């Protein structure tokens, strides 16, 4: 999350728009005005939930590359491609041809053609109308919070994370194959080596191996990786290779534009954005706001510009955010927040008590919301930031598994960040380096600023350890520094 702002700024309207339109067989591909309007409405909500648009020059690169693919797909000027400021490795598509790719994914591919292949795959999901066929998940159905959701509260709608559905979509194997086939076709039409499609899938497999090698660094992250929404199997790589051969082209007969990709990615932010804070396993630490907290085992964190989203066992949902402190202090803030969440809906405050924290004024409030199937537990915690503002948690839990002890642990874990820890949370960037005589993957990986330097080096470059590098070969490393 970024600097504290008023809660409730992010209005997530109910997604009632009908957006189904199957492409007619044999007709020219199209994106309807209705779908474009729907996507345009979702666009700011998705960005607010998933890290925002990346501000660096790489955004224009992704947009231009996307337009090249859209044109190849017969959709010139009909798609919007956005580089998302998140280090999670993912890409997704929203009806109306709004395509998103994270900077985490941009970092792990090796060439422009591989990146183009990801964008082509997502455009394939659009023209296959795959998203419309998915079951929309609803946390409200899980918890039965019908009465509350009808109150139309912005904060409640945000907690339900409705815009998140496209990020967490699970495509079927058939849909994946169809998107792969369409994507490969667009790749070739755009003048890129169609063999890059298999290379892209290989990059995503390396990412899976890296996650395993780095000890499941992101196990507690709420945002799923690409592999969860686009199931990755060995067979998909084989299929992509077979399809590339069937074009009749030799491998590398068309360009992959590796140098153009390396020029573009050089200086791009890598890992967490210090302005939004760091998700370190279940711990959240913000070096600018100088605060931290730790979620209990089984909880997952998703960082975004407006808030940190929490999810936990039995459909538990919550968020960590902030806002200006009213004159009545933390108690007044908690009541104001409760009113904002339930709107006109009924809610009963069951307990309000001080949270014993060293040097921080804090209050916890437990309330009960009227759900369709009975009361639903809501917990709020508010902390004085000592500078005219406050931080807060809002948690909605399942009545059958309210996680009371875990929520109390979470609320007590809030702490001020030490200067020493804040100093370790610095921005990192991708730096491209040209190998000199004598350089090997092992020696160059020592330059990588990461707890797992060699594993990260292999992930970014797809090079076997200990191999000598041909002098002049350009590779990616990661170092501390400001993005450019
Ligand atoms: Zn897919």
Automatic annotation (TrEMBL):
Peptidase M48 domain ranges (all copies): 58-240
Record GO terms (molecular function): metal ion binding; metalloendopeptidase activity
Leader sequence residues: 1-26
Organism annotation: Sphingomonas jatrophae
GO cellular component: membrane
Protein name stated in the entry: Putative Zn-dependent protease
Pfam families linked: Peptidase_M48
Keyword Nucleotide-binding: no
InterPro entries: Mito/Outer_Membr_Metalloprot, Peptidase_M48
Necessary cofactors: Zn(2+)
An example Gene Ontology biological process: proteolysis involved in protein catabolic process
Keyword terms of this UniProt record: Hydrolase, Metal-binding, Metalloprotease, Protease, Signal, Zinc
